[in-house]
Specification:
Radius of gyration: 29 Å
Organism: Rotaria magnacalcarata
Strand order of the largest sheet: 1-3-5-7-9-11-13-15-17-18-19
Number of helices: 0
InterPro entries: 5peptide_repeat, 6-blade_b-propeller_TolB-like, Pentapeptide-BTB/POZ_domain
Shape: globular
Number of strands: 43
CATH topology of the largest domain: Neuraminidase
Helix content: under 10%
Structural class: mainly beta
Number of domains: 4
Largest sheet: 11 strands, parallel
Protein name: Low-complexity protein
Length: 574
């Protein structure tokens, strides 16, 4: 059909393979619900053409002119718009996978509620384009020009805006986690209530930007012209980097968290038991530390923190409270612990326990100071994953490579004993449920000689009243968790990146185990379930297979009663 002119043409519900419409002119054409495979529209002029709900594969619109075009609800895979002109084009609710808009001009184009995967916009001019409520996986805007763009409530996952010029654009309520704005020029842009966690603005030119209520956790502003005063209305600036490389932090949610010698202990803290005092630091003459009073061997202080005006569960559903401090316990140190926040949490209790042998003479060797509590805010959009595109005809190598064990059955660091479930992290670290060794072991990429025990390994155990060193840590009020230090034939394991912890199928329970060094303890998440396999979805729900009840249940973290999703009708193959 090259060099043809169509006036009122209907191709709807059809199928076109290897069609050539190059240099063709269309007026009022209909391709709705049509499948187009290897079709060439290069240098074509399209006006008032309907591609709604079409399936377009390996198509070319290069150097074409597209006006008043409807791609809503269409699927476009491997489609090129290189150097084309798009005006009044609707991609709403469409799926675009590997589409290329390089050197293209887009004016009044609608991508709202669309899903874009690996879509490129380098050197593109975008004017009055709507991406609201869309999901963009690794979009590439390198050296593009964006004017009057609407990214409101958009998921920009690992977006690259490097060397882009952006003006009069709204990012309000968008998720730009780990996105790159390096060397970008942004003016008159609104980031109100956006999630910019770990985003990078290095050497960017920032003028008249609104970061009010934005999450700037670990955001990097190195080399920019922005100061701390311009970020004062942000939701969080914890560990953000200012222009000169200075780290900034959120206000401490703990009252009297530093051991100030001029402030009584009673300010902020309640003495639960024993006696705690403040002593001059052995490292600084201007600083005091919380420590046990002389001749005391045990004490506790606690403080309650109201979350009602600090955390909105509907806006930031996947958030965690982080408690950190400078402390020393018999010359060993710990840094921080975290707690995933649930919808029904309105108050936290921070509990500091001092415990030392009676024969310890020097209280300066056992102290706590700089106690800080802050919130790491998160949304479900951070958990969105790109599913790998594995061809249907893919084949797998038949000769595998040993990455763990291979030294026969045993309990050595280079051995496994009936390994069951495993989980592979993004860096190819392998975590294995070493069932008959009652432990979880970790094998780093490239190290096939020795594994590292990261949970359990203290012989078999599952009875709570046999455990030692039980303690209550930062937690929701009236919902204390008991920690444990043993596993009993664990069968599966996964990594929860939100809390940097392991979730383990262990005998008749599901437990969480911190990945932090020297933790050595876990906590029970779900009890009275004969767990064999585990999975977690993007909304942080746990799926647990129960071999006694022959069912699979879904659990919300923090709850012990799950929802039946499969089975539950007894043993059988029906």
């Amino acid at each position: 059909f090259a060099d043809t002119e169509f006036d009122i043409a209907n191709f709807s519900l059809g199928r076109i393979n290897h069609g050539n419409f190059s240099f063709t002119i269309f007026h009022n054409a209909n391709f709705s619900y049509t499948r187009l495979d290897n079709v060439d529209f290069s240098s074509a002029e399209l006006d008032t053409v309907n591609y709604s709900s079409a399936n377009i594969l390996n198509a070319v619109f290069n150097k074409g002119s597209l006006r008043n075009i409807n791609f809503s609800f269409a699927q476009l895979v491997n489609v090129d718009f290189l150097s084309a002109r798009l005006e009044n084009v609707d991609f709403s609710y469409a799926l675009l996978n590997k589409a290329d808009f390089s050197f293209t001009s887009l004016s009044n184009v609608n991508f709202s509620n669309a899903q874009l995967i690996n879509v490129n916009f380098p050197n593109t001019i975008l004017n009055d384009v709507d991406f609201s409520f869309a999901k963009l996986h690794k979009p590439y805007f390198f050296e593009a020009q964006l004017t009057k763009i609407n990214f409101a409530s958009t998921a920009l996952i690992l977006a690259n805006f490097r060397l882009t010029k952006v003006s009069n654009t709204t990012f309000q309520k968008s998720s730009c986690v780990a996105s790159t704005f390096d060397d970008t020029s942004l003016s008159d842009c609104n980031f109100w209530h956006s999630n910019l966690k770990e985003a990078k603005f290095k050497q960017a030119k920032l003028n008249h930007l609104n970061f009010s209520r934005a999450n700037l956790y670990k955001t990097d502003f190195t080399g920019t012209n922005i100061g701390k005063s311009e970020l004062e209305n942000a939701l969080s600036i914890e560990d953000a980097v200012l222009s000169n490389g200075t780290l900034v932090h959120d206000a401490n949610l703990i009252n009297n968290g530093q051991g100030d010698c001029n402030i009584p202990l009673i300010n902020g803290w309640t003495l639960g038991s024993g006696n705690v005092t403040k002593l001059m630091s052995n490292r600084s003459n201007s600083n005091c530390q919380f420590t046990l009073e002389s001749l005391s061997t045990e004490a506790a202080i606690y403080q309650r923190v109201n979350l009602s005006d600090k955390w909105d569960s509907s806006s930031w559903p996947y958030s965690q409270a982080v408690l950190m401090s400078s402390e020393e316990t018999l010359n060993s140190t710990k840094e921080k612990i975290s707690l995933l926040l649930n919808d029904d949490m309105w108050e936290l209790e921070v509990f500091i326990k001092f415990n030392t042998p009676a024969n310890l003479r020097n209280m300066n060797n056992y102290w706590c100071d700089d106690i800080k509590l802050y919130i790491v805010y998160g949304t479900d959009l951070e958990l969105t994953r790109v599913i790998p595109n594995i061809p249907a005809n893919a084949t797998w190598a038949q000769n595998g490579v040993t990455v763990a064990g291979g030294k026969g059955r045993g309990d050595g660091k280079n051995q496994l004993n009936n390994p069951n479930g495993l989980f592979v992290d993004d860096d190819q670290t392998v975590v294995i449920a070493d069932m008959w060794n009652d432990r979880i072991v970790q094998w780093m990429k490239g190290d096939t000689t020795n594994g590292k025990v990261v949970a359990g390994g203290n012989d078999q155990g599952n009875i709570l009243n046999e455990l030692n060193n039980q303690t209550i840590v930062l937690n929701q009020l009236n919902n204390a968790n008991v920690v444990l230090n043993q596993l009993n034939h664990p069968t599966d394991v996964l990594i929860d990146k939100e809390t940097d912890s392991l979730i383990i199928c262990d005998d008749k329970r599901v437990v969480r185990w911190s990945r932090e060094i020297n933790t050595g303890e876990g906590e029970i998440l779900i009890e009275n379930v004969k767990c064999y396999g585990l999975a977690m979805d993007d909304q942080k729900y746990l799926y647990v297979s129960d071999t006694e009840k022959h069912e699979v249940r879904r659990y919300k973290l923090g709850e012990n009663n799950g929802t039946l999703v499969a089975g539950g009708n007894g043993n059988g193959d029906g």
